[in-house]
Amino acid sequence: MSGAKNPVKRGRAKKSTTDTKVYLEHADELSYDIYGKHPDAQLVKGNVTFLHKGARLKCDSALYYQQTNSFEAFGHVNMRQGDTLTLTSEYAYYDGNDEMCEVRRNVVLTHRKTKLYCDSLNYDRLYSVGYFFEGGKLVDGKTILTSDWGQYSSADKQAIFYYNVQLKNDNSLTEGDTLYYDTQTSKAHIVGPSKITMGEDIIVTDDGYYNSKTDMTELYGRSTVTRKDGKTITADSLHHNSTTGISEGFTNVVFNDTANKTRFLGDYIYYDEKTGYGYATKRAVAIDYSQGDTLYAHGDTMKLMTYNIDTDSAYRKVYAYPHVRVYRKDMQAVCDSMVMNSLDSTLIMYKDPIMWNENRQILGEEIRAYMADSTIRFAHIIGQALSIEEMPDSGNYNQISSKEMMAWFTDGNLRLNQAQGNVKTIYYAIDEADNSLIMLNYLETDTMRMFLTEEQKMEKIWASKHSGTGYPISQIPPDKKRLPNFAWFDYIRPLHKDDIFEWRAKAGGTQLKIEKRREAPLQHIAKTGKTNTADSTSLKPKEAILPLSADSTIAADSIHSAAQTEKTVVNNSATPATISQNTDNETQKGKTGETETQQLNTPDAATSTEKETADTSGKQKLHG
User: Are the C-beta atoms of residues 145 and 167 closer than 8 Å to each other?
Assistant: First the structure.
């Protein structure tokens, strides 16, 4: 029988650090029954205290196995190690040789400000690790973690949770199968399929880090953040802060806006949800899938700016620069820089812009396209405008050059093209019988309009005062087949959606040189008091633009009015026919066709008559 021992004094604790013996420090009662249920144990009751290597354990009663250096504790079990760790339960078994404490029922492990609640826990004092099973809950400030299995290390303040893991705080809920948690930094490492809900934002990841204090997440392994407005961002590496609303994606990043049916791709994307500012680079691509055909636009750098955010008048601008390339099945484009504005649905291209539609090419110093539901309705080419249409034989081209050009579209199809300012054209007449070319017509004028049918066939041409020459197809001089500024850039045209990443520059010497605009004459007051102008040259008023109907198509009554203008027919004789302005009406008949002229009365004619060139059949019809 062994009696009660005096408690070890705090000053002697260091001397017994290598002492592995478990000491019974105090008990109100002690008994020993060799013939009882526990012949190897001493039964102690009342304010029982054990001491082992600096740890003190108290309980209501215990079975003390002195020979095996262990004991079983019952009722109000409380183990304290130093000033930072306590362990309470209703039952405990302690093995002094292995320094293992097995506690059961209403277990609470407290380490500084961290508490672990469970029903079954094995605490290994040798490695300062507690293992729980049959469910556990760790409370770290406002953060609560629960799981079926897990462990907590008081040495490095690290916790690991397995199976049905949940991490909760005031702002988020994290669910998964495996989670590592650092109580010092309040940072969680999520492993395996997991879901984080932050307010109305949802994060799905297989590998990520979450800071419960700052709500900052660092996600890896192809993670996705879904925002409350339906926007999603997916990347191989993703940093997201739900407090600031900032997300950064690295490598194979996809930003998807389901509401506007747009998508941004890149190897780096930055987006601020609160300001609506976005930035993409490294193979950046903007994708619009709101229509049947998807549009792909690439630039070395892309920026997204949102104005009047969180209001009914919010709109966005997308900037792309440099080396911009655009591809859609029915339209392709290249330029140095581009701006897309959702306020007025415009797309503006700067510095050597070129657009292609089927066999047509349009270029100028600046191109502005106005959209309706992602379908072009109006285009404005400003400065050195050039429109080229490749004929079916791939050797001849219809060409129009002017200072400025405007085009109207219906359902994405060109219906009216207006050129103004130093207009020069080359147009081939086609015999509808066999679709063969019968004549080249060269025309110079100040303003010209070309009308096309729904089938994209020439309906008529209208021109103001003009002069021109017609050449039979067999007698065209070689130097008359091309306008002086003719350039066909099919070698830089994007061929498919993956071709937008390969920048092909124009051949040397073919870049446009910006022409300086003439400034409007300024007025100044002379000493005499009279108002003079800096330039006495009067400005010629521009041609009126045909009105558009409510749906941005050419008004039907305007087309009908234009259709009533004078028809003219070019001489189709075997020799070139020079066309000039005539005041007389005369009829000429040749071997291959006939010509006739009529008096023209335009809808707004009040002082003079204008001439119209039209082609409504397979025969070439011009007038002078």
Answer: yes
